[in-house]
């Protein structure tokens, strides 16, 4: 059974409290918060004030995904804004080990995300330090994109490395997740499924979350 992390990037921001309370009442395990700076990715989402607002109403842990350049500048601020886990991009962190240590020092669980073109093997040396590896199954920046099929292979390789080395990090997948591909993602080794528009555009979001969780 997968853990589910609905992405509030797809929520109705005119009714954010309503949507968060829906997630609180659902089978969701986390609330995924996508932070974009318009530089690392070609889109701007929101920052600490919205994260704080989400945290004010959320009764699920906040899974904060920083799609930003120089994330070290903001780690303490996002932790203070309510982040339980903070995930940074491998591609944005020239001193990744230092950044991961910095996240851990804030008290948040450290994660590293990989863009679709980045092989999982590049994380070999840092994996023992991580609580989470996030595999992007679309190019980051915009919701509603088509799922990239090579994601299955990446998850399988990462899962095999985890088993061979006896490590305990969780594997999260983000982008284009739906009821059609969720079972295979879990079969290949994914532990957490991020879903945005698939949940929030559903006729019954709570039922959709429950169905994803059974994957």
Automatic annotation (TrEMBL):
Gene3D superfamilies: Aldolase class I
Keywords (A to Z) from UniProt: Carbohydrate metabolism, Isomerase, Metal-binding
EC numbers for this chain: 5.1.3.1
GO molecular function per UniProt: D-ribulose-phosphate 3-epimerase activity
Enzyme class, first EC level, given as a word: isomerase
Annotated residues for binding of a divalent metal cation: 32, 34, 65, 174
Catalytic activity: D-ribulose 5-phosphate = D-xylulose 5-phosphate
Pathway linked to the protein: Carbohydrate degradation
Cofactor note (record): Binds 1 divalent metal cation per subunit.
Active site (UniProt): 34, 174
Entry function: Catalyzes the reversible epimerization of D-ribulose 5-phosphate to D-xylulose 5-phosphate.
Name of this chain's protein: Ribulose-phosphate 3-epimerase
């Amino acid at each position: 059974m997968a853990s589910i992390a609905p992405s509030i990037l797809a929520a109705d921001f005119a009714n954010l409290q309503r949507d968060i309370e829906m997630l609180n009442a659902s089978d969701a395990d986390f609330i995924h918060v996508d932070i974009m700076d318009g530089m690392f990715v070609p889109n701007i989402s929101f920052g600490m004030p919205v994260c704080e607002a989400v945290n004010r109403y959320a009764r699920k842990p906040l899974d904060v995904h920083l799609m930003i350049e120089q994330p070290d500048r903001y780690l303490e601020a996002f932790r203070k804004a309510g982040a339980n886990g903070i995930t940074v991009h491998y591609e944005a962190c020239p001193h990744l080990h230092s950044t991961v240590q910095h996240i851990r020092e804030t008290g948040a669980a450290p994660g590293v995300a990989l863009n679709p073109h980045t092989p999982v093997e590049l994380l070999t040396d840092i994996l023992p330090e991580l609580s989470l590896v996030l595999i992007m199954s679309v190019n980051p920046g915009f919701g509603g994109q088509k799922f990239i099929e090579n994601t299955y292979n990446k998850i399988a390789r990462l899962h095999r490395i985890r088993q061979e080395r006896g490590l305990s990090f969780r594997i999260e997948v983000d982008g284009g997740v739906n009821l059609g591909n969720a079972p295979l993602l879990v079969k290949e080794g994914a532990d957490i499924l991020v879903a945005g528009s698939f949940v929030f555009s559903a006729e019954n979001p709570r039922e959709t979350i429950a169905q994803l969780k059974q994957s």
